[in-house]
Amino acid sequence: MRRALGILGCCLALLPLLLPAARGSPHRLRRHPRPDGSRSGGLGTADSACKNRPLDLVFIVDSSRSVRPEEFEKVKIFLSKMIDTLDVGERTTRVAVMNYASTVKVEFPLRTYFDKASMKEAISHIEPLSAGTMTGLAIQTAMDEVFTEEMGTRPATFNIPKVVIVVTDGRPQDQVQDVAASARTAGIEIYAVGVDRADMQSLRIMASEPLDEHVFYVETYGVIEKLTSQFRETFCAANVCALGAHDCEQVCVSNSGSYLCDCYGGYALNPDKRTCSAVDMCAPGRHECDQICVRNNGSYVCDCYEGYTLNSDKKTCSAMDMCAPGRHDCAQVCLNNDGSYSCDCYEGYTLNADKKTCSAVDMCEPGRHDCDQVCVRDDLSYTCDCYQGYTLNPDKKTCSRATVSSLVTTEESCKCEAIAALQDSVTSRLEALSTKLDEVSEKLEAYQGRQQVV
């Protein structure tokens, strides 16, 4: 068997020729009639009808301290050559690569790359992690973080096999047996590839049955790439779609010697499982748009109502601030209104008929003020006043007729009488004085006359 071949050191360069032929396993190469009635022979002549069946395939590679840098480069070459043999694609085989030592790193999950060039480029940049050999942890991480629909694993209803290929040169430092058993119970098929000092018992503990088809061994990393032909034979299945032996209207997907029909984007498989019909991607229940769904070449994009903006998730919408600078044309005041806006004016101004600009108003116009009698304009406001004979009340709005108390009237009356009496007295004395002056004047004139005669 393979382990015996490795241990005995038989000619590794001829390993693909020495390993046993297919045992009837669904993972082995089957020969199918050609359209002309002949049968395909070796791998070189079977390329048109023999493609690997669709897989969700995860490589788990050991990069512990025992793997020297130049040996790890050989592992990366092996991975690249393996990818060359696979029928890689979103609808065919999806590939993920994990790197482990004491820790585990998912280099890329199943959902990241669907073409060989991108995968091989990513593999070329993988760096070893150095210490430790936590193989059980690596398998557990594959179950928890890689074999999930979020990371690209296809739903169970698709019946796509989940496959792990573990490449290691040492003995696991953790409990790999229970973890590997859980993985197998979960439907994950495990292939174990041992190199150089790899512990064969550990390889057999983690691998799926039958062990002679799931355990591989090579003496050095220098010849590990020789295993690619073995895996190609293992994963090969008849490509019924390539043979044209199907009745799918649009897309034929090979499935372990049989096939399934599928449709192009924007089409749905009819109940007959063969033909396709165009679908309205914006029909209720088919899209995740919060507000508006726009059909787009067999798919759709989301949009929002006026006054809303599409969020970063490209599905939901949020009301935008319509009153932000540059979004409105209000002259004075902008009011947000559920995705829209309206204009208003400062106090003392009124909104014009265009609902945007404002004009100053006469605050003393009828109906604009609450003055009882007189309104006095004061810039953009007003104050109240009263007619003559009235006084403004404390509310600064209403007026009351002015009244004089009896005490004030009596006092004012007394003052007036005293003044009048004083005036009369002064007048009387002035008149008496004036009379005396007249008399003195007459006497003076008479005296002056007598002096002139003498």
Q: How is the secondary structure organized here?
A:
Elements: H1 2-8, H2 15-18, E1 50-52, E2 56-62, H3 69-85, E3 94-100, E4 104-108, H4 116-124, H5 135-146, E5 162-168, H6 176-185, E6 188-195, H7 200-206, E7 215-218, H8 228-235, E8 236-238, H9 240-243, E9 251-255, E10 258-262, E11 267-269, E12 276-278, E13 292-296, E14 299-303, E15 308-310, E16 317-319, E17 333-337, E18 340-344, E19 349-351, E20 358-360, E21 374-378, E22 381-385, E23 390-392, E24 399-401, H10 406-453
Parallel strand pairs: 2-3, 2-5, 5-6, 6-7
Antiparallel strand pairs: 1-8, 3-4, 9-10, 11-12, 13-14, 15-16, 17-18, 19-20, 21-22, 23-24
Helix pairs in contact: 3-4, 3-8, 5-6
Quick recap of the structure?
This protein has 454 residues and is α+β, with helices and mostly antiparallel strands.
Written description of the protein model:
It contains ten helices and 24 strands. The chain has 454 residues and is α+β, with helices and mostly antiparallel strands. It has a six-stranded mixed β-sheet with strand order 4-3-2-5-6-7, sandwiched between helices. Strands 1-8 form a two-stranded antiparallel sheet. Strands 9-10 form a two-stranded antiparallel sheet. Helix 3 packs antiparallel against helix 4 and helix 3 packs parallel to helix 8. The protein is rod-shaped. The N and C termini lie far apart (192 Å).
